[in-house]
Amino acid sequence: MRFSSLLLITGMAQLGLATYSIKDDYSADNFFNMFTFDTYDDPTHGYVNYLDQPAADSLDLYNVSNGQVTWGVDHTNIASGRGRNSIRLTSKAQYTHGLVILDVAHMPGSICGVWPALYVSP
Prior knowledge:
Layout: E1 2-14, E2 17-25, E3 35-37, E4 48-50, H1 53-58, E5 62-65, E6 68-71, E7 84-86, E8 89-91, E9 99-106
């Protein structure tokens, strides 16, 4: 996935008109500082091995270059054990409301075994 910018903007209603201010900036330079790299077993029981940040970095599973963030699965090694090496990110911040603006340059299609997802939970 490539993200050229991701901003979380919280909304505040004022006299029936919505005004917004930027609360957190998830742009490329600080994107991965805003998340934790989860390493627990896949809650959907998929064949995947979620790696911590140093391990994912050593396999080049994520990158920041030219203002864009990219990440993906390990497509060079044969999967074994818990499954294919990948990353699972969880935001360090929690929000009760807001407006999220997401600029996606590429999202994988719905081919077998690919499930790109952005989960937003209350």
